[in-house]
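A quick aside before the break. I want you to see a complete sequence-to-structure record at least once, exactly as it would be stored in a machine-readable document. Don't worry about memorizing anything.
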Amino acid sequence: QVQLVESGGGLVQPGGSLRLSCVASGSNLQMYAMAWYRQGPGKQRNLVASMSSGGSTNYADFVKGRFTISRDNAKNTMYLQMSSLKPEDTAVYYCYANRPGYGYWGQGTQVTVSS
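That is the input. The structure line, written in C-alpha cells, reads:
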C-alpha cells in the first residue's frame, strides 16, 4: 500500500506561482506512473498532468506551457510547478500514483487563485 501526502496549496494572486508536493511512503515511486488531477467547485475531477514511469509527460490543454510535472525519486516525491495562475485554476488538487493493477490517491490540497 502507498500513502501520498500533499502540501503546498494555498492562496495566490492571479499571475503568481505555486509548487505542490506529494510525498509517497510505503513504496518506491520509481516504477510508478504519476499524475495530478484537480476538481473545482461543482465540477468533475479532471486530469491536469501525467508522467509515465519512464518520464514521458502529458498535459491538459488548459495548463500546457504554465504547469510542469516532475518527480525526485531519491526523495520519493512528485511535484506540480504552477505559474501564470488564473482564477479558473482554483480547485482542489490531487496527486495520483499507479502501476498495473494498483492506484493511489493523495488527500487533496486547496489552491485558490484570487485578488
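Two observations worth writing down. The mean pLDDT is 95. The CA atoms of residues 92 and 110 lie 4 Å apart. We'll return to this after the break.
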